[in-house]
Amino acid sequence: MAGNTSTTMTEPKRPTGYEVGYGKPPADHRFRKGQSGNPRGRPRGHSAPLGRRDLLDAFTQAAREPITITKDGRTIRTTQIEALAHQLTRKAMQGDMKAAKLLFDNIKALAPKTEPDGMSHEEWLDVLDDSPKDPPSIEVRFVSPGDVLLEPAGT
Question: Region (Disordered) spans which residues (predicted)?
């Protein structure tokens, strides 16, 4: 075998005493100097998945964006959330019971518990009610002097 000298493979240079195994890749398979982590990993500026507050802010921002709609034959400019409220109210008025329930549930959830003057909705209904209220009952009895029993002073 005269050609062995030209075809022999050279061993990669490894530090002496270095053990290759789990968590210890060979030196020629490790990241190069100056290169760290996954080069095709998450790009800069991208954040973690949206949290609950971030999602609420995103929905609020999207709902406030302007939109052009046609109402009664006229083109008007409004926000998307106002257009959605108009559409939900219109569907409820046309007899869509799911839309009506959703509309009333949202009004109930968003309405203040008491009015600014401190009276609740039920109290206002009582004030505005036209039916006469029954006054507290008063019982009047006429008695003769002989009907009155005098109690003994010792009791």
Answer: 1-52
Of 92, 124, 116, 118, give the one whose Cα is nearest residue 105. Answer: 92
Give 77's contacts (C-beta < 8 A, 6+ positions apart): 66, 67, 68
Sign of CA pseudo-dihedral 115, 102, 84, 60:
positive
pTM over 0.70: no
CA distance 10 to 96: 81
Q: How confident is the model at residue 30 (pLDDT cuts 50, 70, 90)?
A: confident
- At 64 the pLDDT is 93
Q: How far apart are the first and last CA of the chain?
A: 140
